[in-house]
Amino acid sequence: MKIGAVSQATGLTDRTIRYYIEEGLLQPEFTKNYTGRKSFDFTQDHVTLLHQISVLRKYGFSITDIKTILADPTQSGEITQELIEKKKQTIQTEQMLLDTLLQLDKQKDYTLPELAEALDSPVLADVKVPKEEIMKDVI
Predict the structure, then answer these.
(1) How far apart are CA 125 and CA 5, in angstroms?
(2) C-alpha distances in Å from residue 113, one per residue of 56, 98, 107, 109, 120
C-alpha cells in the first residue's frame, strides 16, 4: 500500500506519516526513485500501528513516550500516570484562568491596560502560557 492510500485510511497527512518514519516509529519497506525520493510500501500492520499512534497522540502522548512504549511496554503504566498528572495540572491551571475571566464585568468594555490589570491576579502570577498558545496565531 502506498503512502496516499495509507494517508486516506488513517486520516494522517503524508508529512505526518513521513515524520513518524523519520522518528523510527515504523519502518516500512521502500524503494528510491530516480530523484532519490523514497516510495514506501506499507502493510496492514503499518496502518494499524499508525492508527494506534494517532490515538495516543490525540491523548497527549509524546513521540518519545510512544517510542518508549514500543520498545518496552512495561513502561506504559508509568508514562500514563505522568501524563495524567500533567493533564490534571493543565486542567487546574485552565480552571483558575477561567475563574478569573468569569469575574470580569460582562457589561464593561475594557481598554487593554484595564483588562490586563483586572486579570493580573497574584494567584495566577506564576502561570505560564504554553509556547504553542503564544505562537498559534503567528504561524
Answers:
(1) 49
(2) 41, 19, 17, 12, 10
The predicted-structure confidence for 101-115, as pLDDT tens digits, reads as follows 888 888 899 999 999
Q: How far is 20 from 61, CA to CA, in rounded Å?
A: 14
Residue type, 29: E
pLDDT for the residue numbered 132: 56
Residue 89 CB neighbour total at 10 angstroms: 10
- What is the distance between the alpha carbons of residues 4 and 81, in angstroms, rounded to a whole number? 36
Specify whether the CB–CB gap between 9 and 48 falls below 8 A. Answer: no
CA–CA gap between residue 13 and residue 28 (Å, rounded)? 16
For residues 4 and 35, which has the higher predicted lDDT (pLDDT)?
4
Q: CA–CA separation, 53 vs 36, rounded Å?
A: 28
Q: Which tops the pLDDT comparison, 60 or 38? A: 60
Torsion of CA 90, 96, 102, 105, to 10 degrees: -130
Q: What is the pLDDT of residues 69-102, one digit of tens each?
A: 999 999 999 999 999 999 999 999 999 989 888 8
